[in-house]
Design a protein that fits this description.
Layout: E1 33-42, E2 47-57, E3 64-70, H1 87-93, E4 102-109, E5 111-117, E6 123-132, E7 137-147, E8 155-157, E9 162-164, E10 170-171, E11 174-175, E12 178-179, E13 196-205, E14 209-212, E15 215-222, E16 225-235, E17 240-243, E18 247-253, E19 256-262, H2 269-286, E20 293-299, E21 305-308, E22 311-315, H3 320-332, E23 341-342, H4 348-364, H5 373-395, H6 412-434, H7 436-450, E24 454-455, H8 457-467, H9 471-479
Helix pairs in contact: 2-3, 3-4, 4-6, 5-6, 6-7, 7-8
Zinc ion binds near residues 2, 329 and 355.
């Protein structure tokens, strides 16, 4: 995500949750899980009716008897314990007053039993007919309805579009302690999932255009509706944005079809260039982009941007200078989040810090956009020091540790400074210590080894330390001991 930095009053309740140890990015699975999704958008009811035929491939070393899926859409229901937006930003997000949604499961077939539970009705637990052993598969079919709130958020009916982030039950990532259950924290992106293959059919009323994560395979009309089928391989999520008013610009960038979607006035050449040039730069700098398409979608959002595999949402209200920065940041997440995954709930700095730093590297190499590395670093230092001073005054001592559960951040202000600004400064310190050649070689080897997996902080540290002894430096940032 790219946050709009807003200084908030501190001190809301802090939640803590156990840090799960993710399976390190060591094992190359022989197979992959697969989602076959058929979903129909009902514009009168503001809902999506879907069926997910899910084939689970057991890539763990354990016998698995039950599966757990995230029902992220349930965070939008009226009685949710964890609200999808903080109170301070709710007025900006709920453009037509409070509105609610939810994700209800109608039935699950191919299993012994199922129930919706978790801390906040956020988990679908499915007991399988029989255990699945390593490298074996099991199939279940989930019929569900996603009710959409009227909200300018990653999931919701916005003022111009329908944002369909996290629109189906997504298998929880598996850790050494079992499936990871995280509630929908309003700070950050509380999503951790493994890569899988997707075959998605969206049925929409005539007149709608869908921007999606997938490559279109076919399209057929039947009366009042149009069904389009998409494919996406080795992705940890699949998203879409719908609109009756989309205009598009498509360019081919090194074999990838980049399409910019927007409503209203044409976007500027510089914004289209940023979408294409950043993809090209990151491909050359870190390693090839894995997907055949990239959708860069201008859509109403209460934050600046939001990333999904092969699709980025950009706040359509941003002016050119902010939108080009946000495009570069969200596109960097294709490398740090989409292809190289991480535990975004407990180690958000890992993708946000690297995405911010990659953005600065892009602008450093494309000076025409007007951002300089010196300027960006100066802004990050100033903002971080201000946070440190404010939190010292309020709490007596600022917690500057970086690997923290999203629920342990008191505010968006703290989260942005620790995950984004301190993350960015940490990678700058690493680059200064190593020199450019070793730094970018380390980033490339981290990408290559951890692509399509979930990388732990140790994976990142070991790749950078392999080129230069950086363990102490990186840990001093992550633990919070370094003085900035
Ligand atoms: Zn981000």
């Amino acid at each position: 995500m790219k946050k709009t930095l807003i200084i908030l009053a501190a001190a809301t309740a802090a939640f803590t949750a156990a840090t799960a140890t993710l399976t390190a990015c060591k094992k190359d699975a022989q197979g992959t899980s697969k989602y076959v999704i058929s979903a129909t958008y009902d514009e009168k009811e503001n809902c999506l009716n879907g069926v997910v035929d899910f084939t689970f491939y057991n890539s763990t070393d354990n016998e698995i008897s039950d599966l757990q899926f995230n029902l992220w859409g349930n965070a939008f229901r009226k009685d949710a314990k964890y609200k999808p937006v903080s109170d301070s930003l709710a007025a900006k997000a709920y453009y037509a007053g409070r509105s609610y949604g939810g994700e209800s499961v109608e039935k699950v077939e191919g299993c012994a039993s199922w129930e919706v539970g978790g801390e906040d009705a956020n988990i679908l637990n499915v007991v399988l007919n029989s255990p699945v052993y390593p490298d074996q598969t099991a199939k279940v079919s989930i019929t569900y309805t996603l009710d959409l709130a009227k909200i300018n958020h990653r999931t919701g009916v916005t003022t111009d579009t329908v944002n369909l982030g996290n629109f189906y039950p997504v298998l929880c990532a598996y850790s050494q302690e079992g499936f990871i259950n995280a509630p929908y924290y309003c700070n950050g992106d509380p999503f951790v999932s493994e890569c899988a293959d997707y075959d998605v059919s969206l049925t929409l009323p005539q007149g709608y255009t869908a921007a999606t994560s997938g490559k279109q395979l076919s399209c057929s009309e039947a009366g009042e509706v149009v069904t389009t089928r998409y494919e996406l391989k080795k992705a940890r999520d699949f998203a879409a944005v719908l609109s009756k008013n989309f205009k598009t610009v498509t360019r081919n960038v090194s074999g990838c079809e980049v399409t910019v979607y927007y409503c209203g006035n044409d976007r500027t050449t510089r914004e289209i260039d940023a979408a294409c040039e950043s993809l090209e730069y990151y491909s050359k700098t870190f390693g090839s982009y894995a997907y055949p398409t990239l959708s860069v979608v201008f859509t109403p959002l209460y934050v600046s941007g939001m990333e999904y595999p092969a699709l980025t949402m950009i706040n359509s209200a941003l002016e050119e200078a902010d939108s080009t920065y946000t495009i570069a940041h969200e596109n960097a997440h294709q490398w740090w989040y989409a292809m190289v995954g991480n535990d975004q709930v407990n180690c958000a700095w890992q993708d946000e810090g690297l995405a911010e730093y990659s953005t600065i590297c892009f602008f450093e190499n494309h000076p025409a956009y007007g951002y300089t590395r010196t300027q960006a670093l100066g802004t990050a230092v100033k903002s971080y020091r201000a946070y440190y001073s404010v939190y010292n005054q309020i709490f007596g001592k600022a917690d500057t540790s970086m690997s923290r559960n999203l629920g342990a951040f008191d505010s968006e202000y703290e989260y942005v400074n620790v995950a984004y600004n301190k993350g960015l400064l940490m990678f700058e310190a690493a680059r200064t210590a190593m020199g450019d050649k070793k730094f970018f070689a380390a980033a490339r080897s981290y990408f290559e080894d951890c692509r399509f997996k979930i990388a732990s902080p140790d994976d990142l540290i070991s790749h950078f330390s392999a080129k230069h002894d950086l363990e102490g430096l990186l840990n001093s940032y992550i633990d919070g001991k370094v003085v900035i």
